[in-house]
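ok so I'm stuck.
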Amino acid sequence: MYRSKLMARTAWLAVLGTLIAAGTAAAVPDGDAPSVSALTSGGRSPITLGSPRILPSRTVQHPRTETPAANAAAVNPQSSVGLKIKTRTFHGGDDLLPLWTFDIKASRDDAHHQGTVVGRSPFTDSGTDRVPTYIVPLIIRTHRVATGIDPKTLVMTTAPQDTSSDPTAADGVCLKAPNNVPATLVRQSPVLTPTKFVMGGKDFGTTQYIDAFQRAEFFKALGRNVDNYHLLLSPVRTLEPIVVDVPPNEGVAIDDPNFFVHDFKFTFCAPFQLVDLNWFDTFVQGTIIPALAEQGVEGGALPILVTYGAAFPQADVVDLNNCCAVGYHNATGTPLVTHSYAVADFDRTGFFRGPANGLDTEVLSHEIGEWANDPLVSNPTPPWGGTGQVAACQANFEVGDPLTGTDVPPVTMPNGFTYHLQELAFFSWFYGQPSVGIDEVFSNNGTFLHDAGPLCP
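replied:
not stuck anymore, here's the structure
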């Protein structure tokens, strides 16, 4: 028994080490062995962008132009479903995520691409994988406050002042009792708490959002196993909050709800904090992840770092032209000990375009969907763009980015809070026809009826 586990672990680490070290496989001509190259991510990080109301919208809405079939009763029992794909499952353990790898010849560019997804291969295996999940509330402390803004340049002036946001504290301003503790609302959300999901006319039962999405995404590949395949975030625990004390030059708060009234004619629910993304992720990888590991959060678990009313500019925090990432996912470590993690802001400010009362769990659903499908941030795809938050072109398997700003119908949970969840793109949208998704569409609410199409330049 010990020998077989050790051999399995060694094989898993060999594949994982190759993928982490080299970024995963590049495209190669059909008939050649897949080669390994550096990550091709289109030159940008896997982040969720929020479009401030003072800037032109960065998202493109995608109303349905056709109506998908009401039901998907016909299930294809063939696992290959016409794709040129090879997969392999690695079951993981306490310090290793359960993963499956794929090598697909994509119909969009007639080339091979390799990648890694959480769970087990829907093309060959059924069963349930559970990933221990930790909600890690972050108390953000900044030491500057905005005092004014130039409406032409969008650069703010500042003065010294301390501001804190705490997701574990009751907020009677932006939220209403009894649903006024952001970390509790995250825990009770459909991303982490089971509820009924119907996608493409198929009742996926009572489960978490990403589990339902994965089954809809690979519906035809799963065939008769669709009801026996699960990727669950379980058990879910909430840890004690971690204080992130931001250096004065790396953060700023806007604490006046009327700050934008004079020049931009809108109010928002303050305070709202801005923290430099590069500084923040360095702090996450250098301080938070090691601290969580000391508490027993192993590589086979998913820590979700939750902020409340905080976002991450990608350069100077006082220049709102740089605003904003509101969440992202990443991985850090070595092939022996790799930690994947997600960062998501629970937003109720109304600062961003979207639902009137804030994004709430749009960001969380975006990031956890992307983590499940690209946990090592290393899955290349044929180039795509011009949709969602991607105006130009990128080449990675990030299921949230093409539909940023497009939601599924709101979900009201037993706590009485109505949650917003982002629609997500299917595997087949990135790699091309034929669709292995439910109803042969290319996203879980049927917005995408075709794959990403011709390669973007």
